[in-house]
Amino acid sequence: MFPLFISGTTVHVVNADPFSLSMGDVVLVTDNNSFQIHRLIRPIQEGKFQTAGDFTRGADMPLSISYLSAKVVIPHNFFQRMCDRVMCAITLWRYS
Q1: Which residues of the chain fall short of a pLDDT of 70?
Q2: What's the sign of the alpha-carbon dihedral 80, 9, 21, 75?
Q3: C-alpha span between 93 and 96 (Å, rounded)
Q4: pLDDT tens string 60-84
Q5: What residues does 35 pair with on adjacent strands?
Q6: Residues 6+ apart with CB under 8 A from 92
Q7: Can you give the pTM of this predicted structure?
Q8: Quick one: which H or E segment has residue 3?
Q9: 3-class DSSP assignment, residue 92
Q10: Handedness of CA 11, 69, 2, 75 (dihedral sign)
Q11: Comparing C-alpha atoms, which of 7, 20, 8, 9 is closest to residue 68?
Q12: Contact, 13 vs 73, CB < 8 A?
């Protein structure tokens, strides 16, 4: 699966109650001074949660709730803009 966000994409994040998150939500995880944006695949159980990147085959290791930083907000027109870019690239490739 193609990743929702590519490296360098600017995203908008908001604080969220970790227990209000649902499977499939996109979250910001901080681990050892690095940031990752991954999809929540297992909600919080026993103080741990699990994520996976859209472009990875397997799941990440379960992490403590303290690593969960924020929820990523996906703008309502995000997918339309992404499709517009893809169609533009296909058109340019086709006619070049």
Answers
A1: 1-4, 6, 75-96
A2: negative
A3: 5
A4: 889 899 888 899 887 666 655 555 5
A5: 30
A6: none
A7: 0.70
A8: none
A9: helix
A10: negative
A11: 20
A12: yes
Name the burial class of residue 49, with classes exposed (0-12), middle (13-18) and buried (19+) by CB atoms within 10 angstroms of its CB. Answer: buried
Cα separation values, 65 from 18, 30, 53, 83, 88, Å: 8, 11, 18, 34, 41
* CA dihedral sign of residues 74, 78, 83, 85: negative
DSSP strand pairing (26-31 vs 68-73): antiparallel
Neighbours of 51 (CB within 10 A): 23
Nearest by Cα to 5 from 21, 23, 28, 22: 28
DSSP state of 10: -
Going from the C-alpha of 62 to that of each of 12, 31, 70, 74, 93, the distances in angstroms are: 24, 12, 17, 24, 42
d(CA 48, CA 56): 20
Domains identified in the chain and CATH numbers: 12-94 (2.30.30)
